[in-house]
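agent> step 3/5: call structure_predict on target 'Regulatory protein' (Streptomyces gardneri).
agent> reason: downstream docking stage needs a structural representation; sequence fetched in step 2, passing through unchanged.
tool.input:
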Amino acid sequence: MRQIPVDTSAAMVMVAQPPTPKIANRQTGEVATDRETGATLMTVDVMFAMDGNAEILNLTVPQSGISGELAMGTPVALTGVVARPWENEFNGQKRHGISFRAVAVTSLVAAKAA
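tool.output (status=ok):
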């Protein structure tokens, strides 16, 4: 699958919604895991602001990649962000979009305090 690296070095990024477990199956409540490592996956919404524009990105991150207190409004650093285009068909309707995945989301508040 095609992956596009995302440069976040010039952006201001802060938590919009704290991390929650990523759900693989809404009917059963099964939590998603990484296919290669088996790690539990989390989702965290971040506000990504750059050049006067802001977007809310929904990131998928392994649970081990989340560090520090990630409460709403916390400034964070993103490591290893990639964008993946996706497309699927359900009941005859095609849907498409871009998903975002990061290796780590790190609180900058914890880094400043240390």
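agent> step 4/5: record observation. The first helix runs from residue 108 to 113.
agent> proceeding.
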